[in-house]
Amino acid sequence: MSPHLLLNTSAASVVASRPSIIERLPDEVQRMVYSLLDYQSLIYLSTMNRHFHRAIDPQAMADPVDKTYFVMKAVKDFPQHRPNEKGHEFRPGNFECYICFRVRSPDHFDMYQPLSVHVDLQGQIVRARAPHHTDREVMLRRFCIDCGVKEGLHAPFHCLVTRTGRDLWPGCLRCPDCGGDCPFDLEERLEPDFLQGKRARGQLHTGASAA
């Protein structure tokens, strides 16, 4: 039986609230089946029930080339990701991130993301100095703001402009007390004391204005 037929049979069994064929297989056989599935199928199967959600990590299991192909195809062919240019409300389309391999809404992407970075001989991004002849320039594909902060491609406290035109200060993405983003207008970014006052009053995470 092919892995995709097993996948379809599994989905039907989940709907019927019975253990699927895959679930009844030994763990090592299950892993063999998962290894034959593409990224899209792994994502689909991981949403079927708790067993598959625990057993399958599409990000870790899928081949990088397959993940790249899928997000490129999804952003181009899936209707929900296309821009809406009809009527009075223009809605930009969604974009693909080539680090987390997800298609996300435009407010998750920097309008002016860096096109390349220089890395030193240890593979670290060069920041505090000018590039040396021993450094290597690495071209970057599109990545979301969350991945940019996580991978060090966005400097902490560097103001960004999202694809929807919103000013964004992503430094708070590193904050364990927040986990979100912090939008500010230009006046707020230029007044550190004012920002400190907002932080003390607990208004920093919501972007609320000062009283």
TrEMBL record:
It holds the Pfam family F-box. It comes from the Eukaryota. Residues 19-72 form the F-box domain. Coiled coil: none annotated. Signal peptide: none annotated. This is F-box domain-containing protein. The lineage of its organism: Eukaryota, Fungi, Dikarya, Ascomycota, Pezizomycotina.
